Amino acid sequence: QVTRKPLFPGDSEIDQLFQIFRTLGTPTEVTWPGVTQLPDYKTDFPQWARKEMEGIVPNLDQDGRDLL
Fold first, then answer.
1. Alpha-carbon separation of residue 21 from 1, 24, 61 (angstroms)
2. What's the average pLDDT block by block, 10 residues per block, for the chain (68 residues)?
3. Distance between CA atoms of residues 56 and 20, nearest Å
4. Domain definitions of the chain by residue range
5. Non-local CB neighbours of 67 within 8 Å, separated by 6+ positions
6. What stretch or stretches form a coiled coil here (predicted)?
7. Whole-angstrom Cα distance, residue 51 to residue 25?
8. Which of 15, 47, 48, 67 is 20 to 30 A (C-alpha) from 41?
9. What integer pLDDT is reported at residue 65 of this predicted model?
């Protein structure tokens, strides 16, 4: 069974982004070519490292994690 809770429970637009960044890592030109050219991209966004999905959703199999 999955957690049945939101994976990214942000309460505002910026909080939503930061929730995603905290889990998937802050995007860079290496992980997302062109990201720094997006109109709302900020070079001073906090830099978070990607977390392993096994620790976030341990009951999800590999196919489910790939889908996420």
1. 25, 5, 22
2. 81 95 95 95 94 86 86
3. 12
4. 13-67
5. none
6. none
7. 7
8. 67
9. 84
